[in-house]
Design brief:
15 helices; mainly alpha
Length: 293
């Protein structure tokens, strides 16, 4: 009996608190001209930091959809801070929502014109939208802001390869490697660029070393097979390809390598980029896994 009375009193208190909260929210919504309710700056800052931590964790876990919502909420709390917009752009990019990502990066640059991350991100988006010359402009601007970011050298190298300037692309990859010597993404792209320009000996040396790396993936090994195929060494290409593929897939790839060898430089570069997707690989936010074209 006493327990029922206590439970009833507790329920009454909860209902009363809920009604009071509802009344307060209703007053705020219906009479905003009479009073403005704001959180203290310390509370807003704590909420912002909490949202950003959760969003970063979600993105690191691969839940970019949830992260997008969190970054948007964080941006409403700190509307003059470019950081949530930069990270929003990165999450949208990973979702392949390229136009929305471009909007986020441009908004970030409107708040901070010297954000190298936003400038590089916008360059990567333009590359994904098949606008390499526009991408080049943004990536060169990002390098002017921060000349020590290896990711920007990689992105710019990819752009230069796609527009056919392999020697300039290789120079950018090497500059990036001067800053990050163990970067598998830069080394891989340098190897592919060398192959596209006909320097198969150095390309094979670089890509073979990557394929033997403990962190190497099937794509790394298939890039090595690709270069052997482009060089005309189909026997070795087949042997490497069999490390990951069944015999039917190996035969299909060998036929593809022969087609690639007969193409002119520009269409061959585009075809190689399609076979080893550039656009999904050049962003580096929050990814410890080695990436490549």
């Amino acid at each position: 009996m006493h327990q029922r009375h206590r439970s009833a009193r507790r329920s009454a208190r909860i209902v009363g608190a809920a009604v009071a909260a509802s009344a307060l929210l209703g007053a705020c919504a219906t009479d905003v001209t009479q009073a403005t309710v704001t959180s203290p700056p310390a509370v807003e800052s704590a909420n912002y930091e909490s949202l950003m931590r959760v969003a970063d964790a979600m993105r690191a876990g691969g839940d970019n959809v949830a992260a997008v919502g969190m970054y948007k909420r964080a941006s409403t709390i700190m509307p003059l801070n470019a950081e949530p917009l930069v990270k929003l752009g990165a999450a949208l990019y990973d979702l392949k929502a390229f136009n929305e990502a471009a909007t986020a990066y441009r908004s970030a640059l409107g708040l901070d014109a010297n954000s190298a991350d936003a400038m590089r991100g916008l360059g990567n988006v333009m590359l994904s939208l098949d606008q390499p010359h526009v991408a080049r402009k943004h990536l060169e601007a990002a390098l002017a802001i921060d000349p020590r970011d290896a990711r920007t050298y990689n992105s710019l190298g990819v752009v230069l390869d796609l527009i056919g300037d392999h020697s300039a692309a290789q120079a950018r990859y090497r500059e990036g490697l001067g800053l990050s010597a163990d970067n598998l993404m830069l080394r891989n792209n340098l190897g592919l660029s060398l192959a596209l320009s006909g320097d198969y000996r150095e390309a094979v040396a670089i890509l073979r070393q990557i394929a033997l790396h403990p962190a190497a993936t099937a794509r790394n090994r298939q890039n090595l097979a690709l270069v052997y195929g482009l060089s005309g060494d189909l026997e070795t290409a087949a042997r490497v390809a069999r490390m990951d593929l069944d015999e039917a897939a190996v035969r299909s790839n060998l036929a593809y390598y022969t087609v690639l060898r007969e193409m002119a430089d520009r269409p061959r570069t585009s075809a190689v980029g399609g076979a080893n997707p550039v656009r999904a690989q050049i962003m580096g936010y929050g990814k410890a896994e080695p990436q490549q074209r």
